[in-house]
Amino acid sequence: MDKNFVFPSCLYALIDPILSTNFLSICLEAYLNDDCEPDKDHYLTTFLADDEIIKRFPPTKVVVGSLDPLRDMSYRFVQKMVENNANVKLVEFTDFPHGFLSY
Questions:
Q1: What is the count of structural domains for the chain?
Q2: What mean pLDDT comes out for the span 43-59?
């Protein structure tokens, strides 16, 4: 993956109880096929979606924990939605890891 797609919050994977570095690697290997280019695939990296796709999104709420390794990617996605005048709301829960809503 391109170094431009590595964010500071990715370091939380080193201590995240749910989305650890090892588990994240396993998930990526299971999801990606040989033809996938993660730095171009908007299904994997949502903020890469074309503006026309973003503009068609329904009202969206993005919920993220402040300790989530994917937090910064979520911020980028929300930023792209705001830039496209999409109806979006970001809710961040302080000191919570990835997947906290499941527990």
A1: 1
A2: 89
